[in-house]
Inverse folding.
């Protein structure tokens, strides 16, 4: 049975018009009969040897089902010379001729040389196209152009100008995220997860239209330098990722060294100083919460040496055959920039001192009776504006449905269904109005309460929700992290506690 093999990639089909159908037609004409076995790979890279249709052809050839193979052109068989020769050799060993529509390749030294030359030229052509495309894009980036719409939240891509412009509706959310994260008065100060949950509860949609905000999405926004006006391009090295993905393997994507990346200036949504502070807070959060020590330290990531200024980490010691733990500023690992002065403090002693001070505050809430409800400070106006827009949307939705009922004379119109929608919209509108009134009330009574009061208020609420008798070490760590910014060990009997 005569077999025909055809292949096309999406790009080639769009540019050259070498569609699957046109190749099949040419191969059938070459075969002189329509009674053929068809093997077609569509949208598959010619660099791969492992292709679904090509694999079936090779299997059928090994079973003796094929007497002849017709292919449109050598580069349809493969873009790589080595792969072309492997397939050709397999077929020749089974006495199966390989015939091409574009050219005759006799089984002779001359024919084999020509076949090899065509394969090499095809591979060279693809490499040159890739090089020219990459070089052109690189030159555009160096001229300050944005070459790809990365769907960046807060911006819209202007293709004609090759630039990014601020999309104010989304930019307000970006400012809100940074304000929540960096303002000490915010109930979500330094809390990525809290911001993600709040945005979800508010009904704010992500760039892709999702209703749920994940903490990693918020973290990526906070870490993205584009929001301070520095948009990075040429960041990822995707060499081999397409071929690897089509072969069924993981995509190979590496981040290029910072000096190779190209930064393009775009309009900033947040001040550079605020963005830098957000990175500092993210770094502190990592120190606090990503400890890999097998022993759980109450003050992990918070302790600093008052003598040399080095951070102090937990270490295990032995005394009379028993384990005990200390905080030490000594860094013995390879590559440490500062070895430290060797100061140590007993873990139990420092824990008792710090927790004792914190406990005094949180077990005497009457001492802080003057605390007011601390909410979104300067973020309230932005949140209020969003809610007011949603109220207007629901009003317009109800009005459209009422108009539809009054003007329509269609008997097939489901009036009950429309009425149910109107009731739901009214319910949503009432909830939004209630929320709007609540925020406006808070804005009236809000005054300049200190950030330390806010931190204590949150810690007290958390403590009271758990109860003193039910506190675990993790609960204590949570309370400490709400309040304590850093603990400085002065000597074996003195430690200063710096709060937010």
């Amino acid at each position: 049975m005569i077999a025909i093999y055809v292949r096309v990639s999406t790009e080639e089909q769009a540019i050259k018009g070498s569609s699957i159908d046109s190749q099949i037609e040419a191969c059938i004409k070459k075969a002189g009969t329509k009674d053929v076995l068809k093997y077609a790979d569509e949208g598959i890279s010619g660099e791969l040897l492992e292709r679904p249709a090509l694999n079936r052809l090779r299997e059928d050839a090994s079973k003796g089902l094929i007497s002849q193979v017709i292919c449109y052109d050598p580069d349809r068989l493969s873009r790589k010379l080595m792969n072309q020769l492997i397939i050709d050799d397999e077929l020749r060993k089974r006495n199966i001729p390989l015939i091409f529509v574009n050219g005759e390749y006799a089984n002779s030294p001359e024919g084999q040389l020509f076949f090899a030359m065509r394969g090499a030229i095809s591979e060279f052509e693809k490499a040159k196209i890739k090089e020219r495309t990459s070089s052109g894009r690189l030159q555009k980036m160096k001229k300050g152009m944005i070459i790809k719409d990365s769907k960046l939240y807060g911006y819209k891509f202007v293709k004609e100008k090759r630039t990014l412009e601020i999309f104010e509706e989304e930019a307000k959310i970006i400012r809100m995220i940074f304000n929540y994260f960096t303002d000490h008065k915010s109930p979500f100060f330094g809390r990525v997860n809290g911001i993600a949950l709040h945005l979800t509860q508010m009904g704010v949609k992500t760039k892709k239209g999702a209703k749920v905000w994940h903490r990693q999405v918020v973290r990526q926004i906070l870490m993205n330098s584009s929001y301070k006006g520095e948009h990075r391009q040429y960041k990822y090295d995707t060499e081999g990722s397409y071929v690897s993905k089509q072969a069924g393997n993981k995509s190979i994507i590496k981040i290029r060294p910072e000096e190779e990346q190209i930064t393009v200036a775009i309009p900033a949504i947040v001040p550079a100083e605020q963005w830098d502070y957000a990175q500092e807070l993210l770094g502190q959060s990592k120190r606090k919460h990503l400890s890999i020590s097998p022993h759980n330290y109450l003050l992990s990531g918070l302790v600093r040496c008052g003598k040399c200024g080095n951070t102090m980490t937990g270490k295990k010691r032995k005394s009379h055959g028993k384990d005990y733990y200390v905080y030490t500023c000594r860094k013995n690992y390879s590559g440490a920039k500062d070895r430290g002065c060797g100061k140590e403090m007993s873990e139990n002693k420092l824990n008792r001192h710090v927790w004792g001070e914190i406990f005094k505050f949180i077990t005497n809430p009457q001492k802080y009776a003057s605390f007011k409800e601390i909410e979104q400070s300067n973020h309230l106006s932005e949140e209020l504006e969003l809610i007011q827009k949603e109220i207007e949307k629901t009003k317009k939705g109800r009005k459209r449905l009422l108009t539809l009922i009054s003007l329509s004379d269609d008997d097939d119109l489901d009036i009950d269904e429309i009425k149910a929608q109107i009731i739901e919209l009214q319910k949503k509108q009432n909830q939004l109005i209630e929320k709007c009134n609540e925020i406006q009330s808070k804005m009236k009574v809000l005054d300049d309460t200190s950030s330390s009061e806010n931190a204590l208020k949150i810690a007290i609420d958390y403590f009271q929700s758990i109860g003193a008798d039910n506190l675990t070490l993790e609960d204590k760590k949570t309370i400490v992290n709400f309040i304590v910014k850093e603990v400085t060990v002065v000597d074996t009997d003195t430690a200063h506690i710096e709060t937010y």
Remarks:
- Residues 368-378, 446-451 have pLDDT under 50 and may be disordered.
- The two ends are 80 Å apart (CA to CA).
- The longest strand covers residues 484-491.
